[in-house]
Amino acid sequence: xxxxxxxxxxxxxxxxxxxxxxxxxxxxxxxxxxxxxxxxxxxxxxxxxxxxxxxxxxxxxxxxxxxxxxxxxxxxxxxxxxxxxxxxxxxxxxxxxxxxxxxxxxxxxxxxxxxxxxxxxxxxxxxx
Length: 128
Hints:
- This protein is an alpha+beta fold and 128 residues long.
- It has one domain (2-125).
- The protein is globular, with a radius of gyration of 14 Å.
- Helix content is 19%, strand content 27%.
């Protein structure tokens, strides 16, 4: 699968890194202060379903609650919560978390949380 990211470098932190399913969604982060960066990157990733926590459905809070205590994190969205608990998810054997993003609204984001499940994504600059 191809995943996209706007960032200033090709560095992929293992404590969480967000990728868009579409280049159009990633482009929103080219000019989003504090997030993203000045360059579009693409990663070809081979994701095993066993390594993915899919939090795009109505049961997202329940699924996440099976892994970590989500009650103490307040009212932030799941797309904001996952990076804060990436280490706990990684310890539980999760490599990728799939969420519905708040920006751009209702897009799907894949968050890489690292882990022993596989190699970190390698990025290549998107050719203009």
